[in-house]
Amino acid sequence: MTPAGLADGLRRIAELTARADACRAEYIAEAERTDAARHEGYGSTTAWLMALSGDPAAVCRSQIAVAAALEGMPETREAFAAGALPESRVRVLAQAQALCPEQFAKDEAALVSQAATVASTRLPQVLEAWKRTTDPQAAEAEAERRHALRALHVSPVWAGMVHLNGDLDPEGGLMVLAAIRSLSEAAALDANDTRTPAQRQADALVEICHRHLDGSLGGSAHRPQVTVTVPWDTLANGAGLVDIETGAISAEAARRLACDATISRVVLDADSTPIGVSRDRRVVSRALRKALDLRDQHCTHPGCDMPARYCDAHHIIHWADGGKTEIANLRLLCRAHHRDAHNHQPYPRRQ
Ligand SMILES: [Zn+2]
Ligand SMILES: [Zn+2]
Hints:
Elements (H helix, E strand, L loop, with lengths): L2 H32 L1 H4 L5 H9 L3 H14 L3 H8 L5 H13 L1 H17 L5 H12 L1 H13 L2 E6 L5 E6 L2 H19 L8 H18 L13 E4 H6 L3 E4 L2 E4 H9 L5 E4 L5 E5 L7 H11 L14 E5 L14 E5 H10 L7
Parallel strand pairs: 3-6
Antiparallel strand pairs: 1-2, 4-5, 6-7, 8-9
Helix pairs in contact: 1-4, 3-4, 4-6, 6-7, 6-8, 7-8, 8-9, 10-11, 13-15
Bound molecules: zinc ion (2 copies).
């Protein structure tokens, strides 16, 4: 099948799906009117639909809500039944209708024709504009409600990963999207970048936090610090795992973090006695770092031009292996190439 043929097929399927969904809404409305669920021995239409379709309660409830709303939305119902509006857009229209039914009835034809043609990403804006002119106070209240719903959960999970989920209000979301895109979309232009879009976005978020903690974004002198406690043996022989607040990292990763201790470190000896504690003191002093930035200018990996301020100072011979913290033993590497350097470098065994 040609791409054009596939596109045509997919369009037709979308239309058929909308028609089928519209038909289901009519059936559900009829079932509600005639109390069909109780006649069939169920406590509610939701319970009956769950038994019939196997869908979860939330899906069934949303279908019932759409069916009920359509009763007062004749133009929407017609477009839905003709396959011109998918159920997702009908649901958004139903929310607008609930906000101000009288004005919606007057504007319904225009809103439906816009909802059927405008890009899905633009639809919320179209309806937002309508709400603001129709009932500014209600629109304001809704914006407040959305703002109150903002939440972010960041939690280490059993699988050894850190799970993020949550919701941001449009303003906050815009900020986060713009920041993540500024780092992930530029990377997408690099043909040698083999990361998936999702991996690039994850890296972008981590990089933003990295820059914040490094103070490379400007800001307070008392910047927050991340403390990683590494037993000396683990650091020295590069084997094993290091427990951190959010899970476990490899000894190699711990060596990389300690390599340029913009992240403060506490190193423990075999008896768990701290032998080297650095807080605000960096392994690489500010003066030395300045000299290194001047010499290297950017990441020293061939072909990489990540600016110095987003690079780590990498010890060519790790200080844990006796390497000196002096300019001859240092080179600038961006986060990705610093990672490569530590992962692919044959580990220098100590005698
Ligand atoms: Zn390093
Ligand atoms: Zn690089």
